[in-house]
Amino acid sequence: MITLYGFGPGFGLPEISPFVTKTEVQLKMAGLAYRKERAMPPASPKGQLPYIADEAERIADSTFIRAHIEGKYGFDFDAPLSLQDRAQAWAFERMIEHHVHSALIGSRWVDADNFAKGPSHLFDGAPEHLREKLREDAQFRVAENYLLSGLGRHAPDEDVDLAMRSLFALSVQLGDKPYLMGGAPCGTDATAFGMLAGILTPFFTSQLRERTERFQNLTDYVSRMMLQYYPDFAWTSVRQAA
Fold first, then answer.
1. Is the Cα dihedral 232, 12, 169, 176 positive or negative?
2. Are 195 and 167 in contact (CB under 8 A)?
């Protein structure tokens, strides 16, 4: 059986990491049995989560895990799509994982209040004398990467303005369809769902979340996907309580 390594539930989400969520949803899409274990990035072959163990193989990075599933188990996540649609889905995936994800990182890790409320607690299990140093180092590295991504070079309202252009593109692409590319889910839906849920969780307060909530079709999409792939997670009641 496949073992999926991730952070686990938190921040009002069934899984903290949008990339672990992506892989978990794709495992569900493929109908593959798996078990899930908690881990931290240093345990991964590439120093990042998710990674999976599949018999003797250990595969890290959600995109390479998808390729492994498709190659070993013969499951085509984009089976309903034409060649042109596959190209468009890949382009949207790159936009989500680079541009939208950078905005999510800024709202969680760079914002001091959200960092204290959420990511700082990832280090609660570290030895007490190291804990604060580990928090500071991790936040510094993330902030540095945020700066290098380009979004971090702008004022807080400007970086959200740029993120909104990508979210507007997603909203237009989704339209009134149940899934991004049509009537059936594809691999990119797992990516979009993980990232959008991470933005929309009421656990964090941010301008990014508030402005994303204006796209009604995106909020409805996340609720549908949550019900489909995490039916036991109380997303609806959490959202209503926010």
1. positive
2. no
Residues 108 and 204 in one domain: yes
Which residues, 6 or more positions from 116, have their beta carbon under 8 angstroms from its beta carbon? none
| Last residue in a domain, options 34, 49, 77 | 77
Q: Which two tokens stand for residue 108?
A: 């969680």
User: pLDDT band at residue 241, thresholds of 50, 70 and 90?
Assistant: very low
pLDDT at 156: 66
d(CA 83, CA 89): 10
Residues 223 and 163 in one domain: yes
CB burial of residue 24 (10 Å; 0-12, 13-18, 19+): buried
- Going from the C-alpha of 85 to that of each of 48, 76, 78, 90, the distances in angstroms are 30, 14, 9, 9
pTM of the model: 0.91
